[in-house]
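Weekly modeling sync, notes
Attendees: S.R. (lead), two postdocs, one rotation student

Agenda item 3: backlog of single-chain predictions. S.R. asked that every request posted to the team notebook include the full sequence so nobody has to chase files. The rotation student volunteered to paste the first one in as an example of the format we agreed on. Action items at the bottom.

Example entry:
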Amino acid sequence: MSERQQEVLDAVLKLMVAEGDGFSVAAVARAASCSKETLYKWFGDRDGLLTATVRWQASKVRMPKLPQERLTRQSLEAALTGFAESWLTVITSDLSIALNRAAVSHAGSGKSRLGEIVLTNGPFAMKRRLEPLFEAGRAAGLLGFDDAAEAFHAFFGLVVADQQIRALLGDANRPAAADIAAVSARAVHQFLGLYGRGET
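Predicted structure, as returned to the notebook:
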């Protein structure tokens, strides 16, 4: 994706913070200083623009780094904690909250595919990103689970907990960086307490 396309998607996110998802392609074109024809060429229809926007926001969650050498309990914990911190930082931001509020507001109404787009490119995408790290941890004898999906749901619950719901409901007390670090470290410690094997 080009830098110019990223600028367009950032303009969409800012519009959603200001107006929800009721914006028009023309409004995006004005905000991003480009033509509607360019937007259609790059992203297709409005759903294509929304999908690209959600993927762009989700891409801001840093991928967990798999160590080049043998995976240890310490390196596994560090990778999971780094991912959790990045994930919490992104999903509690104003941009993500605006996306999720818009998705929830249309859920089941048939008016918008935004809910489906957010699910596919949000939680489901995070699961796909974490699975290689989970599998590496199991292969190294550091994690024990029968079902990677079940392990991800446990990780999701421990990391996200009620943080996102509170933000969606308007809680002005968003977690600061130090709070996110503490929550992430605690969640990973609890996760390893449930699924950790081998080294201590």
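Discussion: group reviewed the output briefly. The chain has two domains: 3-57, 63-195.
Action items: rotation student to repeat for the remaining queue; S.R. to check formatting next week.
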